[in-house]
Write a structure and sequence with these properties.
mainly beta
Length: 782
């Protein structure tokens, strides 16, 4: 790596007003960071002097201050779309990347758009986590020579050692959005796989005494809920606490949580043997979770998700009430890193005892059955960084349920080792799971080793993996398959700098093969060739071909241990066109087709999403997805004697609308609507033979049609959000939704909509207020 640039921060005692003007005298005498160099697309090219950038840094005992002047000889052409926080949109940007330990491992990144919108993220080499939100202030001033950014970043938003003399990793970032050009102050060489170690140095911060980091965020919410023709009024109140244990560690706690305004889940008609995996939308579990993702043992939707058991009923009993989720009582997480590079993360959550109701069909008598006891979830992560670019982690995930219910523990050793020049990587893991349940438990393990060339135009990736039959992380994590060993290889070629025709270009060739442990049968095998590129006009294209050149075997579709079904040879092709979002009108088009080595067994899909930016305040995005499976085959039933498979036609239609109106960079209206229709129509039944193939049974409609499924879903959210003070928000939500599930197929969208909205529409109106309180401000007032 090249010589690192160094910038001196200047101590300040006077008050700095964050107004985007840099009008305090001390700004004039501070050292300047300049001479930015292009990161993408033409890596290494110096910035045009007509668009030069100059940045200065000040500090006091509470915060650091960033002043940046972005020159532009055509200021009227700058893009300035107003968006929500953490949405870059179509706008010019300035950013600062800070690594308080200067260890090349993790950045705290802060961005401001030309429209004054803030974005912030915790960044590692593998992830840029914008769900993390810090409390900081910024202001933008447009000028006749470009634009100016002024930022105040409190030490509470950063992590660093308690040394009297600080040395931080530092880089500045500028995006000229209308050209799709990205620049950095310290040169980032894209021939090298790692970005963070290529930062410059910030010196000069000495003898600071940061204030106590203690913040309270109380909230109050009101809900009016109209469901099943019944109305209900609910008032909730609670508190979030953030406490800086020391300069490096922070405690986050939620007391009496309220997640009623989180985004709805995109539910589908799920015919697979696996549960549907949902995105995490609850802020506590999405913010600052980089440490907790080590080892991939945390699927946070387990916490407060569906109960882990279902009632056992007698012949004359039925379940009449079954909860969809378990209530969360409270949650706490502690995270941070010592000056020696040891990261420590601890997450604890407690969910309440939950029951279902079982009714006697003869007497009408009801009884409650515990389907989830009081449960404690723990995750502990110890992550040691060293060498400026490597780490070894110990992770433990534990689920303890009260009484005789199932308990689980998973431990993992994870490593990520890079050569000094960030040219090669050796990564891997060893994980061990232990399950305790009546009448007995079981243990399992998983291990993997991954060797990667991470530099240059030609790169490759080699992976070997083994997972035992009893490996199970699904009490706090998620893993769909086990009991196999796998070999994977990838070769890719990329251009480093633009050519006559392309701003970027990459070609990938990958292959993977999996063998089931006990039988040695091949359960997955593919070859994939793909290429993607950006044109000189910044339109993106991707094309890929996927081949399964031999029959493979599925050990999960039959839903019976030891049984398997076959998958025929297959080939698929797909493409993606995504036009430049800088234009007012842009569109994404994604066709897909798969052809299997069976008569008329195919899959066709077409996805299209046009978007139109009416002006800098209003954006509309439509999307439509049509998927059609012909002569698909899959599990339908187990009658106690035979495992039944069915041949079916499947159709799925999804339409979505999202829109945003930004009053300003703190106040927005958003609309999100989704209609989903999917059906599976059966025409033949088969029995599964011991060799994994199917034996024809019947096409009698009276026996086949009862397995038909038809699902319609509707979700609509209209929200208003106003950040009226730092980290303080008023949000108003109107939501309605409807579900219609039946075993009779409706081939008309009109009839499906009639069924969906006839008697099923539920509505929620809610208002929530969150207010940020800094302990230091209370202390000063007292």
């Amino acid at each position: 790596m090249g010589q690192k640039k160094t910038l001196q921060a200047v101590s300040v005692t006077e008050n700095i007003s964050i107004n985007g003007k840099l009008d305090e005298p001390i700004w004039q005498n501070a050292p300047v960071a300049s001479d930015f160099i292009m990161f993408e697309p033409d890596n290494g090219k110096a910035i045009d002097q007509k668009k030069k950038t100059e940045v200065k840094v000040l500090y006091d005992n509470q915060a650091i201050y960033i002043g940046a002047i972005m020159y532009d000889d055509e200021p009227s052409k700058m893009l300035k779309e107003i968006t929500e926080r953490d949405d870059f949109g179509t706008s010019e940007h300035f950013g600062v990347f800070i690594n308080g330990f200067n260890d090349g491992q993790q950045d705290f990144r802060f961005f401001v758009s030309a429209a004054g919108v803030q974005m912030d993220a915790l960044a590692t080499e593998n992830n840029e986590d914008f769900s993390w939100n810090a409390i900081w202030s910024s202001s933008v001033e447009m000028t006749d020579f470009g634009w100016v950014v002024e930022m105040r970043i409190p030490y509470a938003a950063l992590r660093f050692s308690n040394e009297s003399k600080q040395t931080w990793g530092l880089n500045f970032y500028r995006e000229l959005r209308r050209y799709r050009q990205k620049y950095s102050w310290n040169h980032i060489d894209t021939k090298i796989g790692a970005v963070i170690p290529q930062a410059g140095i910030l010196e000069g911060i000495e003898n600071i005494k940061p204030p106590t980091r203690l913040f309270f965020i109380p909230y109050a919410s009101y809900y009016y809920d109209y469901t099943d023709h019944k109305s209900n009024n609910t008032v909730k109140a609670g508190l979030d606490i953030k406490y800086g244990i020391n300069d490096s560690f922070t405690l986050d706690a939620i007391l009496v949580p309220d997640f009623g305004q989180t985004r709805f889940d995109n539910v589908v008609l799920n015919l697979t043997p696996f549960e549907q995996q949902f995105n995490e939308n609850r802020p506590f579990f999405t913010e600052g979770t980089d440490l907790f993702s080590k080892g991939s043992l945390l699927y946070s939707r387990r916490i407060g998700g569906a109960p882990s058991t279902y009632p056992v009923t007698a012949a004359n009993e039925e379940v009449v009430e079954y909860p969809n989720a378990v209530d969360l009582i409270n949650a706490v997480k502690v995270s941070g890193r010592t000056k020696s590079g040891l990261g420590i993360g601890f997450l604890n959550a407690v969910t309440e005892k939950t029951t279902a109701t079982v009714q006697n069909t003869l007497t009408g008598e009801r009884r409650d059955v515990v389907v989830e006891p009081l449960t404690n979830y723990n995750l502990l992560v110890l992550d040691q960084r060293f060498g400026g670019n490597s780490s070894v982690s110990l992770v433990n995930a534990n689920t303890t349920r009260n009484g005789d219910f199932r308990d689980a523990n998973v431990s993992a050793l994870v490593w990520d080792l890079n050569t000094k020049g960030n040219t090669y990587k050796l990564a891997g893991d060893f994980k061990y799971s232990t399950i305790h349940e009546n009448p007995q438990g079981y243990d399992g393990f998983k291990t993997a080793l991954n060797f990667i060339k991470t530099h240059g135009k030609n790169r490759y990736d080699l992976l070997a993996k083994y997972i035992s039959r009893e490996y199970d992380i699904n009490d706090l994590g998620i893993a769909f398959i086990n009991n196999y060993y796998n070999f994977y290889a990838n070769y890719n070629y990329r251009i480093i700098n633009p050519t006559k025709n392309f701003n970027s270009f990459r070609f990938d060739l990958s292959t993977s093969v999996e063998f089931q442990n006990q039988t040695g049968k091949t359960q997955d095998y593919y070859w994939v060739a793909s290429t993607n590129f950006n044109t000189k006009k910044n339109d993106y294209f991707n094309f890929s071909v996927n081949m399964r050149p031999m029959i493979t075997y599925d050990f999960y579709q039959p839903r019976v241990d030891g049984r398997f079904s076959y998958n025929p040879r297959a080939a698929s092709v797909s493409g993606l066109v995504s036009t430049n979002y800088n234009r007012k009108f842009a569109i994404d088009i994604n066709p897909y087709a798969s052809f299997m080595d069976e008569p008329d067994r195919n899959i066709f899909e077409f996805y299209v999403s046009p978007r139109y930016r009416i002006n800098d305040r209003i954006l509309l995005i439509l999307s439509g997805d049509y998927v059609f499976h012909t002569n698909d085959r899959g599990f339908v039933d187990n009658d106690g004697t035979n495992i039944l498979f069915g041949e079916r036609d499947r159709k799925t239609v999804v339409g979505e609308l999202s829109g945003r109106y930004s009053v300003n960079n703190r106040m927005t209206f958003n609309i999100t609507a989704r209609y989903y229709w999917s059906y599976a129509e059966y025409d033949e039944l088969f029995t599964l033979k011991d060799n994994g193939f199917l034996a024809y049974q019947t096409n009698d409609p009276t026996l086949v049609s009862p397995y038909d499924e038809n699902l319609n879903l509707w979700n609509f959210d209209l929200t208003y959000s106003w950040w009226f003070a730092p980290a303080s928000q008023i949000s108003i939500l109107y939501r309605n939704n409807a579900t219609d599930y039946r075993s009779s197929i409706e081939n008309s969208i009109g009839r499906n909509l009639d069924n969906l909205f006839g008697n099923n529409l539920n509505s929620v109106f809610s208002v929530s207020i969150r207010y940020f309180i800094d302990y230091n401000s209370l202390k000063r007032k007292s």
